[in-house]
């Protein structure tokens, strides 16, 4: 039985289907400071796990030391996800977006935070 499971796992790893990321952005009021928002970008459902995801302010990538990251995490279906967040002042006028590049995408996915972004309290 174990050898069958191992062979099946090896087959799945060698024949995994490439899967593009679904990209979502949301904003949440900061727990520690109500005048701040936590902007989060989530890329999920992608495979293989190599991905470039950055949060940009006015088209410039924020330094990694200003961004919180979960690192790559597994989903239940053998795809993976990555979530990155940054805290900003709620009244900040800069334009923020999430820039995602993956081998399954012909061009990067760019999703902006904007007036339509629901703020989760």
Automatic annotation (TrEMBL):
The keyword Glycoprotein applies. GO terms for cellular component: external side of plasma membrane; extracellular space. It comes from the Eukaryota. Keywords: Glycoprotein, Immunoglobulin domain. InterPro entries: Ig-like_dom (IPR007110), Ig-like_dom_sf (IPR036179), Ig-like_fold (IPR013783), Ig/MHC_CS (IPR003006), Ig_C1-set (IPR003597), MHC_class-I_related (IPR050208). One of its GO terms (biological process) is immune response. Residues 21-110 form the Ig-like domain. This is Ig-like domain-containing protein.
